Amino acid sequence: MSAPPVPPRSLRIPEETARAIEERIRGSGFETVDAFVAFVLARLLEQPGDAAFSEADERALKERLRSLGYID
Question: Alpha-carbon dihedral of residues 30, 35, 41, 42, nearest 10 degrees?
Fold first, then answer.
């Protein structure tokens, strides 16, 4: 007996990013922003690489999230 399908998860992205993606996928095989984002993330996960962030990467990421208002 196979496991039931996992329902999709919702993610929030800035409207500006969603609009840029809409422009990029116009005329492509991607029908939605969701389809494009899922494809890109799946491809990124296929690439080998270090799973851990360096301290510098973590600081840069936190600063970017702070500047976008996601964290204090």
Answer: -90
